[in-house]
Request: fold
Amino acid sequence: MKFTILPSIATAMLLCDQAQGQSVPSLGDLLKMRFNVSGPVYTYDDLEFTMDFQVSDFMQDSMIGYTLYDGLNCKDGGDTDITQNEGYLLSRIRTDSTPLGDGSGIRTIKIQSEIIPNNIVNSGLYRDDEDGNGLVEYCLRFSVYNMDKTTSNAYESNYLEVPVKLVINLSSGFTVNADVSNADLVLAEVSQDVAVEAYICDSDENVVAMLGTEQGQTIRVCVSPTPNNLAAGALMRQLEEFSFRREIPISTKQVAISPETGGVAADQLTVVSCRPGSTVCAFETLLNADFFAGEGTVVGQGQAYLQLGVSDSVAARKLQGTPNQILAERPTKYTVVINVVPVESMIGMNELASSAPTATAFMGCVLVATTTAILSVVGLF
Reply:
């Protein structure tokens, strides 16, 4: 495997109203520190890139995002947004649990992008080069925003663009039929109930580190194929059932997703979000008051179904013995553990954390640094 990072080209623009002669150096320095972006430090393994970007601890999770484009020119070069695609390039964001600060601290944000062999060769992202090798080129644009990026007044304050070029030696056996062994891997891990990972998450599917869940606070659970299974082409089909249980001081159980319903919420305390062919399914639940009888641990257990590829026709599932037909009949289990805290204990935690600064929106003079670095990888498969 050969890796090459071409020299970076960095430019910076100060977006100020210079025509009016306005200059606010101290604010500019503050904004530069708080909205600075650096990186990426990257690793590559079996068609998957993991890129670590650094931002300041002023940035909330909702102020961070990324976009994938179908070429090396990225957004400003007119390439097309392919963040949501037909399953040939999977991606996800992973934030850390660094507490919010004034901007003097550092957070590390991971962006993972992974090529799915059997889907990529039939996509517009794949082409043959002059040497007869397979060529995949795309661009990742990592962005930070002035406020929650989903709000109408949000705008991109800073960004880094990272074009990626992957050259595949087809003579080494990289073929459309490579999913035969991949299907065996997925089926084996499903049978061992180790095919998916579940975690407490936010609305952007980021991992949430929780000190404790208090009464009245909703819990959002994300379920995704493990990285190995994602690499093998496994995607989510549906969530089948899930229930919470606590044994001490009293035995308490709450069903969130009813069994044998195809993923239907048990009642109005739960909202389920799961699209067949997606990388992540999620549900959000409000636990009843019985779970908060003193500090303790709540265990949640559920089942999920996977599928191979984004196509999920009924006819394909009815073909006896095919991987998708087997997966449609064999759920895989998963577990999450939640710490619950009585209201009076949670008040104490909040008082300790009340001095932590919160992010605010700044308008006006913003330093925007743009860096372009081409990651060129030659893979032998």
